[in-house]
C-alpha cells in the first residue's frame, strides 16, 4: 500500500506526526498481507498511547475494520478521521466504499463527492469516485423514465376506464354515499 497522501486545500490545523504516520502505514501493510489482527493490535496500542485522537490512527482503524467487513465500525472511524482532518480524501473514499457495501447509496455518493472536491488529481480513487457517481446518476435517470412511463400508462387506463366505471357504478355509488 502506498503512503497516504494528503490533499492540501485550505488552511487547517491538525496534528501531523510522521512517527504515527509511519506506524499506521506499517500496520496497513501488515493488514494487506493478511494479518488483520496484528494490524488492529498495533493501531489500538498506538491509539491508547496518545491522549488526543489522531486522524491517521482513526483512518488506519477504519481500514482494518473494513478489511474485517465490519462496515459500521469502519465508517465510525473514517468519520472520526475526517472530523479531525476533513481533507483526507482517502478517508472519504474508503467511507464511500463502506457505505456502498452497506447499500447506503446516498451516503456513498456524498462521500465520493467529497473525494472529488478535495482531490483534483486523476488517480484511481478519483476515477472510481467519479464512475460510481455517474453510474448512480444513470440508474436514477433510468428509474425516473420507467416511473413516468408507468404513471402515463396508468393515467391512460384511468381516462379510458373511469367513464365506463361511472356509467356502471355511478348510480349505486351515489346511493351508497347518501346513506352516510
Automatic annotation (TrEMBL):
TPR repeats lie at residues 55-88, 89-122. Keywords: Membrane, TPR repeat, Transmembrane, Transmembrane helix. The chain crosses the membrane at residues 145-165. InterPro entries: TPR-like_helical_dom_sf, TPR_rpt. It holds the Pfam family TPR_12. This is Uncharacterized protein. It comes from Candidatus Desantisbacteria bacterium CG2_30_40_21.
Amino acid at each position: 500500500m502506498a503512503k497516504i497522501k494528503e490533499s492540501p486545500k485550505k488552511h487547517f490545523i491538525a496534528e501531523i506526526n510522521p512517527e504515527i504516520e509511519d506506524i499506521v502505514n506499517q500496520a496497513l501493510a501488515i493488514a494487506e498481507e493478511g494479518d488483520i489482527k496484528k494490524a488492529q493490535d498495533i493501531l489500538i496500542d498506538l491509539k491508547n498511547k496518545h491522549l488526543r485522537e489522531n486522524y491517521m490512527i482513526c483512518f488506519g482503524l477504519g481500514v482494518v475494520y473494513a478489511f474485517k467487513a465490519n462496515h459500521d465500525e469502519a465508517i465510525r472511524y473514517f468519520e472520526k478521521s475526517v472530523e479531525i482532518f476533513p481533507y483526507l480524501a482517502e478517508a472519504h473514499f474508503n467511507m464511500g466504499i463502506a457505505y456502498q457495501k452497506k447499500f447506503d447509496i446516498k451516503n456513498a455518493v456524498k462521500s465520493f463527492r467529497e473525494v472529488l472536491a478535495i482531490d483534483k488529481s486523476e488517480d484511481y480513487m478519483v476515477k472510481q469516485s467519479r464512475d460510481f457517481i455517474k453510474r448512480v446518476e444513470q440508474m436514477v435517470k433510468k428509474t425516473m423514465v420507467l416511473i413516468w412511463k408507468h404513471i402515463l400508462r396508468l393515467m391512460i387506463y384511468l381516462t379510458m376506464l373511469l367513464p365506463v366505471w361511472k356509467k356502471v357504478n355511478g348510480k349505486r355509488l351515489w346511493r351508497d354515499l347518501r346513506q352516510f
